[in-house]
Specification:
2 copies of one chain form a homodimer. By secondary structure, the first copy, chain A, is mostly helical. Chain A folds into 2 domains: 363 residues, no CATH class; 154 residues, STAS domain (Transcription Regulator spoIIAA). Helix content of chain A is 62%, strand content 5%. In chain A, the strands form 3 sheets. In chain A, strands 4-3-5-7-9-10 form a 6-stranded mixed sheet, sandwiched between helices. A two-stranded antiparallel sheet of chain A has the order 1-2. In chain A, a hairpin with a 6-residue loop joins strand 3 and strand 4. In chain A, helix 7 crosses helix 20, helix 17 crosses helix 18 and helix 22 packs across helix 23. The N and C termini of chain A lie close together (7 Å). At the A-B interface, helix 3, helix 4, helix 12, helix 22 and helix 23 of A face helix 3, helix 4, helix 12, helix 22 and helix 23 of B. Chains A, B: Its main location: membrane.
Chain lengths: 677, 677
């Protein structure tokens, strides 16, 4: 009789009384005909009726449709306000060259601000360009060249108003670390230079393509934690590289890892140390740090730390020139060719054996450069309250590097430290970049000869002074507090850069980030749910100690976004074990568990292995006399288990829209079943 | 005034009226002091009070604790029924050698069944062992050796009652395909054989270690779809390999892909084709297929298809011997050494240059062999209704292969076709394997000389006849129906095996399976929710057309298991765009959206990039005058956003336990806000 009633209930779908349950837990069971009539009167309230909504929901869009839609969205973004056709050409040009838009409203008052900002920027940019070229193992003029053409191109195409374009530390390090492995820059500087230009060309091409194909999400593949770790590691590596200049060493290693560098220093130090270099470098380092301290204490004096590097260069050059310290072991720049950017199209190296490696290095540089530039651009844009289109920025960066590679520039991007100075100096538009570029160009034409005597130790001290900004210990600490696994990724990237190489550090970061996703999504975790008092909400009983268990019913939630081959078996066995254990305890008190409600809220997707596991779970439970109820299967899941005929196996009456529906119905059935037994 | 009220509501936590809402949507707003008093009276019903449960939930266990617990569970499984100490040694032995347990109750009636099953098994096993050895490019006796020792070892240690141990097609193919790349079996058969034994030793060692360390989940890394595709591809590859024997070719390729094999056949066919081979092979193939058809029509005649291969071998050998067909181009086995398994410990090759490759091949063979054996064992165990411990089986398989490698056997595992025959023949225990092994041993001692004249074409036709069982088109079709991406994995594995090589096929399968997990868990998908009529349940409005939108409130659910670096930015921008679009529409009708409820039910985990994205979302919404409410953040998520101080930023009053709580409170605030404006 109990069975018959159960089946009838399933077929005719029982009503649910969530609010009245605690007052009327039992319903007279003998007259269930009357009850069935009631159901027909109140169909909209029935939990099983809601299940029908679930079971009759339309099919979700197939995966390729989703894919096509997202590609379509990416390639052909829909704009709601379509303009008239005749204006389309102008609009397109304005999109490509934002200067056409804002240039028409540009006023003299704005230019005053931009001029001041541009000049301040130039005074910081000139010494930084020289030192980063040095870091990239190129002659110093290439750094200055890179501060001329790319900013001008960006001024035409970019939409950020604050970003300062030019060479940056991390990209310079990346470039020198990776190209050095192909060609030794001291043995064959010409080939090294050609590869640097080729890499820049590839970087630009990749960046432009990413932007055109709207692949902006690619730069998201470096997680925040990975960037923090990577930057910290790179800063230390860059700092270690400066030991060469600071100590005045002639022999150094091409490797970038801590161990090799310290070994090289230890080996060279006893033989060729010139203390004068160290004294000079350290005194100016202290000077720069003091100016920065002053700038921080009084925000209006921001120009003091911004000018300090240029002042240091001029002063130290004068000192060396006047005291002839270069005869006493102070290393100086020496090679410095002035004049306009020479054309370098003929130096691009597309036929050589390094073409594949160049493309690879170009890709890595492109991504790192974009990550830095777009990060910087977005954070300042959000301060000023405008939106920066990542894809458009990528196109601008791409073209600026392509043009750069034709005019003796190496990979340029947005510099964080200079952008901050530009912002502090009150720039209004990207015109400050134009001012900066022209100022750098003028100094290239007139003053380069004067830089012959600049001591290398000063350059090292300027780089060293810029590094603390790259090491973000506070952020690392907050990552540690928030997410331990993210911190592991951060440490992995940091150690990879520090103890192996820059590209291994990046690789470690990307691989660990994705491994984290895999682990967190297949982690075979389940939790026992209980009802929160006075509600229909079922929650983890460990997380919410107020939650209470419903006797005779076991509610288990799968805490994994996907039920797939990699976790399905494990989850199934865990659930079976848990239900067995619970059953043993319950059996002695209240006659055992009758229904197991499987809350599938979190399972967004299931594969064939997952469905097999559920079928086995159903078989196992049935053999113990326990019914399986499924609560809240998602769209993909319900569609797939319907397609796999699993719904028919467990009976459509055992699929519910929510855990509370499932529990109410089960309670009902259980009580009725017991009364009828 | 509106603002002050809003803040007060946040602080004092508004009550929620889910059931009475439609009747009393508005509450008098002027006397909110009275209202606040009411709240204090009914705290347990308030949505915000529930939020307090959420906000005050204890910290979840740190990730390493979870890791440790799962390792601990894996290594030291807890058994509830601990036996007395003095029996522990016996129990341990019984666990290791289940024969000690069931052997004591073994009866003569059971033996009768096992004897019959064992003899039937042997008659199928002898020809299959010869042909699989041929497939593995080993002399035929090695196949027979492999059907002697491993079954005996398994009989002592294994717990499956039906599984038939010996060489199988896929592992043989895998072995020959991979070892052939190291050593050419026709050029240096001795070295090839030594590597085969070494690989077998490694396979066994890996299997035993997996079992001892309870790494049973490793075999789950081949998804169901991948196995179906891989087996199908392997079957076709094996079939193509048989063209050599069937056409009587002498020159053939060592490659296994379709293109190479067909090229080799096309090249060799005009020169050296002996039609007699083909005629002989095909006629026996047809004979075997007819017997199989008979066996299928009448289940009692299962022994006819089981005997057919042996009968074919004997008959064809006789024909060749009597007609001297080998003088007319019919290729025969020739090399066939009889006698007991020779000891091969001294042939294991641990010092050579192939040690790393051997270990790699051993690992792959170990996993594939285990996948097949445990799949077969489990499916028959579930028919007979007992549970098979995967880890224990792995240990048994491991030891049987280690002992096998010492006694001239190559990698053995559970064969699907022979297990089915064993089951059909009514085996009771693993004794049928012992009977089979002894029968094979006797034939090795007495009858091998008779097999000298066995034509190779017969062996090919026996293999060919077994292949259709490996190609499961029905299953592939049902995978297609259930999950298109899974089907893609299946096709990928199939094509990888078919057009490249067996190991590439496996690699493709594993990589595609994991890529699928990554894609499905970072797929940046969001859905708009609406309330199901008469409930507190909020559902996807596309999936449930009955769901209705609440005016002025936008409810969006993140449909991704994790909100991380790879999808956070994309999801954020999608939500911003969606809210803007909705706001535009709403503004014209009802004065715009006031609250955006973000349902985070599905987000099991968040990383620092995800939290950054949420902070930016909050900023963006605030700038539009829209409040952000967060509904149902999971344990990990609430803990992390608390740690990152995001809760303070949006205000703890805007975090709710469910969407309906969030919507009620927002509705309330909105109405009050509007009235107060």
């Amino acid at each position: 009789m109990g069975l018959v009633f159960k089946d009838l209930c399933r077929i005719f779908s029982l009503p649910q009384f969530p609010q009245t349950l605690q007052k009327q837990p039992t319903i007279p069971t003998d007259n269930f005909t009357m009850e069935l009539q009631q159901m027909d009167v109140t169909p909209a309230n029935g939990g099983s009726d809601r299940s029908k909504w679930l079971l009759s929901s339309p099919d979700p869009p197939p995966p390729w449709q989703e894919l096509f839609t997202s590609i379509k969205e990416a390639f052909f973004p829909q704009t709601k306000n379509r303009k008239a056709k005749e204006r389309k050409a102008l609009l397109f040009l304005q999109t490509l060259f934002p200067i056409l838009k804002w240039g028409r409203n540009y006023k003299a008052t704005k230019f005053k601000h931009d001029l001041m900002a541009g000049l301040t920027l130039a005074s910081l940019c000139i010494p930084q360009s020289i030192v980063y070229a040095n870091l990239a193992k190129l002659d110093p003029q290439y750094g200055l060249y890179t501060s001329v053409v790319p900013p001008l191109v960006y001024a035409l195409m970019g939409s950020s108003r604050e970003i300062a374009i030019g060479p940056v530390a991390v990209v310079s390090l990346l470039l020198s670390a990776m190209i050095s492995k192909l060609v030794d820059p001291s043995a064959d500087p010409v080939a090294y230079l050609r590869i640097a230009f080729t890499v820049t060309f590839f970087s630009g091409t990749f960046q432009a393509l990413f932007g055109l194909f709207r692949l902006g999400f690619l730069i998201d593949f470096l997680s925040h934690a990975a960037i923090v770790g990577f930057m910290g590691g790179a800063a230390i590596v860059i700092g270690l590289q400066q030991l060469k200049g600071l100590l005045g060493l002639s022999h150094f290693t091409n490797e970038t890892d801590v161990v090799s560098v310290l070994e090289a220093v230890a080996k060279a130090l006893p033989h060729e140390w010139y203390p004068l270099n160290f004294v000079l470098g350290c005194s100016f380092l202290i000077f720069i740090l003091i100016t920065r301290f002053i700038g921080r204490r009084n925000k209006k004096l921001f120009w003091i730390p911004a000018m300090a590097p240029l002042f240091s260069v001029i002063l130290s050059t004068l000192i060396v020139y006047l005291t002839k310290a270069d005869k006493h072991g102070v290393k100086i720049v020496k090679h410095f060719k002035g004049g306009l950017n020479p054309i370098s199209v003929h130096q691009l190296n597309f036929g050589g054996s390094y073409i594949g490696d160049s493309a690879k290095i170009g890709l890595i540089c492109a991504l790192v450069a974009l990550t830095e530039a777009i990060g910087v651009g977005r954070s300042f844009a959000s301060i000023k309250g405008y939106h920066l289109d990542g894809n458009k920025e990528m196109v601008a960066m791409g073209f600026m590097n392509i043009v750069g590679s034709f005019t003796s520039c190496y990979t340029a991007t947005g510099s964080f430290s200079r952008t901050a100075v530009n912002f502090a100096a009150g720039c209004e538009t990207v015109v400050s970049n134009i001012v900066m570029a022209i100022t750098v160009l003028i100094s290239l034409l007139l003053f380069t000869r004067l830089l012959y005597y600049t001591p290398l130790a000063i350059l090292a001290s300027i780089i060293l002074s810029a590094l603390p900004g790259l090491i973000d210990i506070n952020e690392a600490y907050s990552i540690w507090k928030v997410d331990k696994l993210d911190f592991l990724v951060c440490v992995g990237a940091f150690c990879g850069v520090l103890f192996h190489s820059v590209e291994i550090g990046l690789l470690v970061a990307v691989v660990m980030s994705f491994a984290k996703i895999i682990i967190s999504s297949i982690k075979p975790s389940t939790e026992v749910l209980g009802r929160l008092p006075g509600t229909d909400i079922f929650c983890n009983m460990v997380q919410f100690p107020v939650a209470t268990k419903t006797p005779g019913i076991s509610v288990i939630r799968i805490n994994s976004g996907t039920l797939c081959f990699a976790n399905a078996n494990f989850i199934k066995e865990r659930i079976v074990k848990r239900v067995r254990d619970e059953n043993e305890i319950e059996e002695s008190i209240r006659g055992g568990i009758r229904v197991m409600v499987l809350d599938m809220t979190n399972v967004m997707n299931i594969d064939t292995s997952g469905i097999h596991a559920m079928e086995e779970l159903h078989k196992d439970l049935t053999s113990q006399g326990i019914e399986l109820a499924i609560a809240n299967p998602r769209w993909q899941v319900i569609t797939k288990i319907k397609a796999a005929k699993f719904v028919e196996k467990i009976g459509p009456g055992w699929i519910f829209l929510s855990v509370s529906d499932a529990v109410e119905t089960s309670l009902h059935l259980k009580i009725n079943g017991l009364n009828n037994c």
